[in-house]
Amino acid sequence: MAGGGDLQSAKKRKRENAEGIPKRKPPQAKGGESGAKRKEYHGARAGHGAAGEAVAKKQPVTARDRRLAAKEMVESRKMKRKRHYSLEKELTKLWEKMRCHNVSKEERSKLVSEALRKMDGKYLDIAGSHVTARVLQTCVKWCSQSERDAIFNALQPHLLTLSRKKYAVFLVKKLIKLATKKQFAWFISTLHGHIAKLLRHVIGAAVVDYAFQRATQPQKRQLLLELYSTELQLFKDLTVQSSRSLLETISKLGLQKSSVLQYMTLVIQAILEKGIVEYSIVHTVILEYFTIADKTSASDVIRQLIPLLTQGSSVIDVDEASVAPELPNKTKDKKKRLSEPLIVRIMHSREGLKIGMSCLKHGSAKDRKKIIKSLKGHVMKLALNDFGCLFITCILSIVDDTKLVSKIVIQELAKHIKQLIFDKNGRRPLLQLLHPLCSRYLPPADLACLSYNVPSLISREVQGEASESAAEIISENKVDTVADKEHGSLEGTQIASDSKKDPSQRRHELLIKNELAEALIQSCIENVGELLRTNLAKDVLYEVAVGGKDYILEGIADRIHMLHDAIASDAAQPKTEDIEHAFENFHSSRVIRRLVIECPAFAVTLWKKALEGKCKIWADGHSSKVVAAFLESPSSKVRDLAKSELQPLVDTGILKIPDHKAVEK
Q1: Which of 16, 114, 308, 421 has the greatest number of C-beta atoms within 10 Å?
Q2: pLDDT tens-digit series, residues 316-349
Q3: How many Å separate Cα 467 from the centre of its chain?
Q4: CA 308 to chain centroid
Q5: Sign of the alpha-carbon dihedral angle for 13, 15, 17, 23
Q6: Burial (CB count within 10 angstroms: exposed 0-12, middle 13-18, buried 19+), residue 147
């Protein structure tokens, strides 16, 4: 029955509230208390009710009043929370004016001076705010040198602290960029003893790398040396020495290789645990570490690097994909850039390329598969990059899983074949398949880079092949422009790796089985005139027309004959003022001459379609090189075909055969 009483009491309370009866009664005075307290209580209640009515009257009624009241409340809270809030508002107004593009230099100078006058003495507090740090950064950019020196001197004791702050780091970078030689040298010296700690800090590592990129070679060595041993970190004088490598440093200073290896292992492991591997200074340290690391240590580093390099730091989650099209263009570009795997972003330097190639060459088949899959959608960006194209070249040269490479790499290259042919970097993967490691298309530095391997991870047999290849690169660096199957190319040279598949078989599977060669020849036929007259594209046309090295395109010989006809048809066109003739153009005349000497089938086609009975017209200028090539051809069939018409021109002095030694020179 107690439950029923409780229910009745609850109903009674609801009824009383509905009728306006007060919820609770004033406390009853106890036996000894006077009635004064009761009066005091009732008076206080009455006063409280009057105050409540006054507050109710002051409350905003309209939506506009509510917005204004909320704004006033926010302003009052910011005034209490922020020390220089009023100054921030003033500086923001000046910043909006000074950063406009249409403001004059005189007006901007006045605005900058006024802002610096207001900030004087408060630089440290202002540098830490996300609002005012931008104002100070703009002032550093546009102020005079004397004003910039004053800012640098004021912040000089605090630069290391500011290098770790989220918003102040951009100001520190701006000061480094615009610093004088003396100021920059001072900043490099202050970093001594803090390099390892800063490289483990997500924000501080960016400052160290920025300084590393702007430093001179001795300053770079100074920054790197303290990452080698405890002695070099403690004693600053030891870092001032002219060594060029870690091994040379160990030899000069008499350091123990085992202790250096142990110390560097601790430094690199701490950096890898933080995942901070996108900076050039980190790449350089790891490459130096590989020169002294044993097989186990080097394998551990590569095993840790591969997951970091293949994952992207995407900002947009899967659930936000539907919102992505509505984002501003600038924001979408930034998010797209962040979604790229790190292995794509590190290809801005030769050191980053070597790190990527180390993981590719010395990783397992599963690791290679993971790396290649991470490149999906980013192959073209790499192919058009100065160092990324070499990474794609390395993939095409050593990965045995040609099905995976075809699915991810070759398919994307085939979709943009014309763009690749005309691009100075994009043509390199194509030329690697057509004529591997040819020094005509790859400079010695790139050839040496492609042959890079971690010393402790390469087998002795492959290491011997790599050293022979390096010697061959040095000795056969000269390029013969006449004939001799390109005297400067590295015949039979391979990129040292643990690949098991025969290189010619791999090339055949990537070129022929995936119809890349078909797309390549079709693009050459459709754009033959433009390709002939373009400096970079003519090399791809030449390699396709001769069938590639070892005649790799033998399976599609009929398509190659169609290309020969297209080139001969273009050369058979009469002279016009609109387009320079193929025989008279500087680039096309030379590539046609090479084709005549190297490819007898093309020479016969060209003779019958464009030159027979017309040699006297083309016996002068650039075109004379094409005509004379028929007499220089190693094929007796080609020489006999043209000799009856060309010999009289040579005897009368109209046609001059170039001296072989002069051409070689």
Answers
A1: 421
A2: 233 333 333 444 555 545 444 457 899 999 999 9
A3: 30
A4: 15
A5: negative
A6: middle
